Amino acid sequence: MHKLYLSATLVYLTFLTAIVILANNEWASWLFNIFEGLPYADKVGHLFLMGIFSFLLNSALRCREITIRGIKILLGSLIVCGIVLAEEVSQVFVESRNSDPLDMLFDVMGIYLFGLLARRLGDTATKSVEQTR
Q: What tens digit of pLDDT does each residue of 102-118 get?
């Protein structure tokens, strides 16, 4: 299962990278126009796109945690936050993009919520394996 999550994470990261490249070069207006009429589509999109990334990476890393100042943080979530922060900051330097703190907020909410889901499902799978022994 670990290799499946790792492969899915790499495919998904390629998909996200393609979206960023399309957006940076204004080649994705047709794609974004599909969701234009939906209220809060941009924010919900951020929540789910980064949430799924967080879920996949945390699952691939088997929900490994690190402790920072006594707080346990999922390593995958921390990595995704770093990537997302770098991408949001980079938008300041791309003429066709605009950096939006609300986008980052929804990114972080998705990362957190889907990280919890990965941890929960990982705990459930571990308990199920232990019960069969």
A: 999 999 999 999 999 99
Give the chain as a 3 state SS string. CHHHHHHHHHHHHHHHHHHHHHHHCCCCHHHHHHCCCCCCHHHHHHHHHHHHHHHHHHHHCCCCEEEECCEEEEHHHHHHHHHHHHHHHHHHHCCCCCCCHHHHHHHHHHHHHHHHHHHHHHHHHHHHHHHHC
> Cα 27 to the chain's mean position, in Å?
22
Give the model confidence (pLDDT) of 82-98 as tens digits: 999 999 999 888 888 88
Stated pTM of the model: 0.86
pLDDT tens track for 117-130: 999 998 776 555 55
